[in-house]
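cache lookup: miss for this entity combination. No prior model stored, computing from scratch. Input as submitted by user K.M.:
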Amino acid sequence: AQSVAQPEDQVNVAEGNPLTVKCTYSVSGNPYLFWYVQYPNRGLQFLLKYITGDNLVKGSYGFEAEFNKSQTSFHLKKPSALVSDSALYFCAVRQDNYGQNFVFGPGTRLSVLP
Amino acid sequence: KAGVTQTPRYLIKTRGQQVTLSCSPISGHRSVSWYQQTPGQGLQFLFEYFSETQRNKGNFPGRFSGRQFSNSRSEMNVSTLELGDSALYLCASSLVLGASTDTQYFGPGTRLTVL
């Protein structure tokens, strides 16, 4: 069975500092990993995904994520946080098997303080 | 290209009533999935439709149902509403069914409140 963990409910970071939102996963085959962001009263917006190839994936709004197979992690990063990055972030995994649905982590609330 | 649209955006119902939510996918997308989001349970998968057929189903009671039309638009229905059905219901569309690399794009959601 697939599962996703986001070990931190809340991450606080000062504006201009680097940010990391953590994600670990468990799948029985090859993982396909996604990050989404949700602003208040909005749906989820796609940020980036890892399918194969380079372990460092670049996405929207300056975000990137690093896939680490040995640690089964896919942490989201940004070199310099903005106050407008404050939102709820979801990591999701989909197993390399036709017809498998997405499994989402519980979400991490990011607060960027001015 | 227009994104995923969901109607209505907000809905208030009372216990025992039924409700129908609508989702229009991105043009050309043929797969539609539905999720329930609550503070306690997070994002939970309801079901996925492709070519007017339910292809995948989450662990929800039979009161939750859905359908997809030939133009890929989808509706979900909840009958005999319970207080615990209060949630944000999200629809997501993707290009094809079940391709693990395919990205799901989400609509803004329908906020259902059951009184």
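stored under new cache key. The interface with chain B takes residues 32, 34, 36, 41-46, 49, 51, 90, 94-107 of chain A (CB under 8 Å).
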